[in-house]
Amino acid sequence: MEFATxxxxxxxxxxxxxxxxxxxxxxxxxxxxxxKPKYVTIGCARGGKxxxxxxxxxxxxxxxxxxxxAKLNAHLDKKGVWVLTTAENTHNxxxxxxxxxxxxxxxxxxxxxxxxMLDLNDRAGIRMNKNFGALVVDAGGFENxxxxxxxxxxxxxxxxxxxxxxxxxxxxxxxxxxxxxxxxGFISVIDVDDELRLRNVFWADxxxxxxxxxxxxxxxxxxxxxxxxxxxxxxxFVGALxxxxxxxxxxxxxxxxxxxPEKLGSHSQFNAGLKTDIQSALYDSHNCExxxxx
Length: 294
Hints:
The structure is a single chain. The chain has helices spanning 6-20, 112-123, 128-139, 149-164, 168-182, 206-215, 223-231, 250-257, 259-264, 274-284, 288-293, and strands at residues 2-3, 24-31, 37-44, 71-76, 82-88, 187-192, 198-204, 218-220, 243-245. The chain is an alpha+beta fold. The radius of gyration is 29 Å and the shape is elongated.
């Protein structure tokens, strides 16, 4: 077989591997003096042997390497055509079902349309789970996508960095200066590296500062917010939390309610009505006055 380019050769083997349910890697590439490839070996992703890089060989990490010999070799001939020279199609391991082969790294592909939709939705403030869900619906199901939510998250993380880019810290500083002129209670602190790239940011306006006076530190159970909130060195906690806000998440409800027997279990009336009264106050009150009364 002959191929116009080494990329065409690799694409051919990837299509074959996807149908046969195994992953693909480029195992070896020889180049000429100018750096252009002249010999390529591509094979099963389980090819090669695992060589531990740490000293504790008694507890090696899991690996998929089985020294599988399945591979193709091709070289660039004098006419500038890539020619398939040898092929080995026998694997020394079991392959996955065809439905799962799309999860191999070599078969994942985040197409340009999906990238554009992810970027547009992210700019509009749509959270990743809903952003990815929209792509699932558009494709007619998970099985029709060649990527996973994790791939989308990785793409958006890189896209956000590129949007800000070099000098982004300076741009944000200028924006905060304008905000301070418009809002008397606006404060901000920015931490940048030597190339003016953002590392940490904290800001607050008059409204958020007034809310802090009322509620103090509040934990919200949103993963992204929690990560950012705890990583900022400019937002230390002052004393104990005064409030916890949830979105009626059942897991959080269970975790919080588990504290009841831990804190009040030794009370003589805990199992004689006190526990029920507390739960009634929490879940059956329709306004602040009713809660306070209970």
